[in-house]
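Allow me, if you will, to draw on your knowledge of protein folds for a short while. The matter concerns a single protein, recorded as an amino acid sequence and a row of backbone structure tokens. Could you please explain, in whatever detail you think fit, how the structure tokens follow from the sequence? I remain grateful for any guidance, and I place the record below:

…
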Amino acid sequence: MSQLTNPSLRRAFFLVLKVIISVGLLYFIFTLIDVRAAFKAAVGANLALLALAVVVRGSVFALDALRLHSMAPTDGLPYHQHLRLALRGAFFSQMGFGFLTGDAYRAMGYAKGEASLSKSAAHLLAARLAGIAMTALIALIAALYLMTSDDTALSGFARQVGFGVVALGGFTLVALWVLFTVVPRFASPAMAERLTLGANALRTLNTRIWMISLLVILLRGISLWLIFLALHQSFSYFIALLASVTGTLITLLPLAFGGLGLREGAVAGVAALFGMPAALSVSAAILLRLAVVTAASMGLIISLFMPELAPRDEPEP
């Protein structure tokens, strides 16, 4: 175990561990359903609606770029450069490396033109926090609504989601308070400067940023709803939205490879809870994963034809 003190070996160990967990989760999910029925449903899905779901999911990446463009982590950077970095970052995120890896890639890309990695990272994390907070808010509103249901299973699920969101929100608020109020008193000058950049980035979260974050969440719900329709299931958009936000919140747990298995289980579980047959709910979850990966892969290809960001010239003395 002493070899795990090596950073590269430690990263490789946790990567392998996450892959094992993802495979285990997927295996468990498939043991609960009729795999042939799930495969047959996926093959018989409406291709036009699936293609539209891919396009809608791709538009999420464009809005993510617009959110960073509005926050202006790099002075004067045109939107197409934000879009190029967002598309490539989305590919790394969705192919199993997690959103932090995608954001790290984008931060390094911004730093190439601004030479301020800390400022770029601060804005990216602030934007990510806005998205998570809006997702949690929608999940909480949906949970409060479902608590009034006469269905015991639904009301019990709603209470679990509500308590989970409140606990997550409380922990996040306390962590932010400690980070920006207590830690600076004992931090080194370099760390204090980074915390100041983080606080400044949070202050840029204006109404426009919150509305873009809301639109991102609504579009994710639409993409899943289109997949439901492609599987010839006439469920309401509300169910798709709830399944989508639940899957997003579940994947915040850094337990699986890119959330593989976690998101599928959450989406399929919510859909089944509302009456979708188990095989179809798993088909919807898998098709959602394929739609996201397809959109991210197409985005990567598009980004390869976009001009690279040239390093800024050093100011003359």
The chain has one domain: 19-304. The mean pLDDT is 82. DSSP finds twelve helices and no strands in the chain.
